[in-house]
Amino acid sequence: MSCTVAIGAQWGDEGKAKMIDYLTRDMDIVARYQGGANAGHTVVVDDKKFVFHLIPSGILHEDKVCIIGNGVVLDPVELLEEIALLQKKGYDIKHRLIISDCAHFILPYHKAIDSLMENFSDEKIGTTMRGIGPCYSDKCLRIGIRTGDIFDIETLERRVTAALKIKNQQLEKIYGEPPFTFDEIMEILLEFKEKAGSMVVNTQEYLHNAIKDGKGILLEGAQGHALDIDHGTYPYVTSSSPTIGGALLGSGLNAFDIDNVIGITKAYVTRVGEGPFPTEADEDDSERLRVNGNEFGSTTGRPRRCGWFDLPLMKRAIQINGMNQLAITKLDVLTGFEKIKICIGYDLKGGRADNICPSKFSKVKPIFIEMDGWEENISKCRSFADLPKNAQDYLNFIEDELNVPITYISVGPGRDYTFKK
Ligand code: GDP
Ligand code: IMO
Ligand code: MG
What we know:
Structural class: alpha/beta
CATH class of the largest domain: Alpha Beta
Strand content: 15-25%
CATH architecture of the largest domain: 3-Layer(aba) Sandwich
Radius of gyration: 21 Å
Number of domains: 3
Bound molecules: guanosine-5'-diphosphate, 6-O-phosphoryl inosine monophosphate, magnesium ion
């Protein structure tokens, strides 16, 4: 078997969960490797919609093991709710969900500081307010609390005391907010221990043993390439590495373990929150894409900004992540556009700037070409040959320009709306 990494190639919400659910059929294990409950991963099965924030999107396949890897920042309250919700819907997942003992907890003070910072700042990022940035900062500052800490009460109490000493100073002195008590934080952690402690293991070891046993592993990216803390549109990014480096760091696997990197991309582009977006469409087209594609955040409900397919952005994502396959989702959303724009390059003050650093995206102008659209409803298409000629031309053009095969095409939110090219 093999190890495949599925990475969002744009600014998140590319339809990763839908593709991961599809790809899970041929896998044994699905593992999240970074991010936290900022992710909103939607899977639709038999018209039933599931939105996962922390639990891997392969969980609906009853015989698969799902892993929350060491690179994930884990909100214990959110995870317990997500598990309970699935149980209520009849999915018994406790025996096949495992959690790394090195993942960091997101605690109430992280969420409080996330929203306080957003409200105080003159340069808002538009975060999901899920405590992501503050938690990863604490990890780097070495004042984080890790899942494995729950097994040694003395260590746990010492670490919570040390973290609170610093966090409460920040809350009170910088923001004038009330402190969190030791007891309220411990209560959350002890409840997590009681209800989910048995799932916490050394997942790095588990994954390496699975590789030795020839199991198929799918590493599930959250967010997307252009939100990467290093390779994205800094500072308008998330605080983790959705890119290939993050997949290794956040799972404990090594570069030689990886066989495939699938880039997941919409047939157009969306972005939520602040930050530059070179191919953002004009108001009319943006609204039309938003309505056709139901482009509202799965986590926050915010309207997503919409724009046209961006080849330079994709070329960069392919280069940095080593994507050797592409999955194109939401092709159906383009139905009805007389002309479909594609950005083939960036212009900066009259010269080409296709390889410009993403932080400078606000300075470039997209160079668009237009292709003919199609009117036919494509949601019943189940092969490339079924697609109208103009849709085929659109995909062939993208494939030729990117020089990477499009292996999967999706024409609807449901599990059955995906086919191989
Ligand atoms: P993720 O974060 O990458 O997993 O994506 P989200 O779940 O946040 O957003 C993708 C949205 O598009 C969800 O509502 C999906 O149900 C929906 N979706 C996925 N693939 C398709 C598709 O091919 N066509 C349509 N119309 N919707 C899709
Ligand atoms: P999935 O996995 C889309 C964006 C936020 C904000 C920036 C920083 O569903 O694709 P954060 O809360 O991470 O500090 O916010 O990143 N963002 C996402 N946008 N999809 C996501 O996840 C996102 N996760 C974070 O909107 O602009
Ligand atoms: Mg999403």
